[in-house]
Automatic annotation (TrEMBL):
It holds the Pfam family DUF1244. It comes from the Bacteria. Transmembrane segments: none annotated. InterPro entries: SMc04008-like_domain, SMc04008-like_sf. Residues 30-95 form the SMc04008-like domain. It comes from Halomonas campaniensis. This is SMc04008-like domain-containing protein.
Length: 108
């Protein structure tokens, strides 16, 4: 994508991000813990990244506003409607993922 000018590249990146949010919204059955296990990020991470990006640019964006943008509704509402209790298998897989990260960090 180096052949694109900065404005076009930014527009494409923004469009891809919006599509990712739509995709996650269309697949509410995909739980945050599933994302954390498989990809090491979740909807909350996206929200935090938005807040960090805003801070880096001198813009104000609080975490709850960012989460409402990412979730498409207030987080509390999304959690009540769509968040399922993590299964013992999911929790074990998440802990194994975290242990792998800690071990990789120690060997670096």
């Amino acid at each position: 994508m180096e052949h694109l000018d900065d404005a076009t590249r930014t527009e494409l990146e923004a469009a891809a991000f919006r599509r990712l949010l739509r995709h996650l919204n269309e697949h509410k059955e995909v739980q945050n813990i599933d994302l954390m296990i498989l990809a090491d990020f979740c909807r909350n991470c996206l929200s935090k990244w938005l807040v960090t990006a805003a801070e880096e640019r001198g813009a104000e964006l609080d975490y709850e506003t960012a989460r409402e943008f990412v979730y498409g509704m207030p987080y509390r509402e999304w959690k009540e409607k769509y968040q399922q209790e993590a299964t013992p298998e999911q929790l074990a897989a998440y802990e194994a993922r975290q242990a792998e990260k800690r071990q990789a960090g120690e060997s670096s």
